[in-house]
Structure formats: C-alpha cells, structure tokens
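Database export, one record per block. Field names are fixed; values are copied verbatim from the stored entry.
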Amino acid sequence: MTVQELQRQVAQHHSGAILRSHGRFARQFEVDGHVLTLGVEPGVRGGLYYLPNTPRWDDGTPVPHDIVTTMQPIIEEVERFWGTWPEFRAVL
C-alpha cells in the first residue's frame, strides 16, 4: 500500500488518484483533474460510502470503466491509511 498524505484529510494513492474529505458527509475522488463527489455517512469502523451505479464525474461526463473498477480498492487503501475501514453501498 503506497499512500501519501498531501494535507489533513487529503491523500494521494500510488495510482495518482486523490481522496479528500469534502465536508462531513462527502469525499471527493479525483483522477487527472476529474472529480467525483461521493456521499459518505459515519459507519461503525469508518465511512459508509454510497457508490453510484453509473458514476459520472461532477461535470456530468461518465467515469471510464477502468477507473470505476479500481475506485473501491483505492478508497479502501486510502481509508486504511487514515486508520478507518470503509463500507460500500450501491446507489441504484
């Protein structure tokens, strides 16, 4: 696991993806300047993430399939770096 803390509650995964806290109930997942804001609720051991069934960047363009398939493992690695264990739910 290679994660680097950039600022408080902002970390970069070795893939280049950045995860940042965005208020109390959201995280921003960023890749190559594209941002996807995800809803997060407090969970038992970490955040409970709500992942959209068909994710779109905040600008409305679709998130490429190769990024969609790696998003959850990247988030898990960053959250573990922060000392938490995230959970995931799909938004239909």
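Remark 1: The longest strand covers residues 34-42.
Remark 2: DSSP finds one helix and seven strands in the chain.
End of record.
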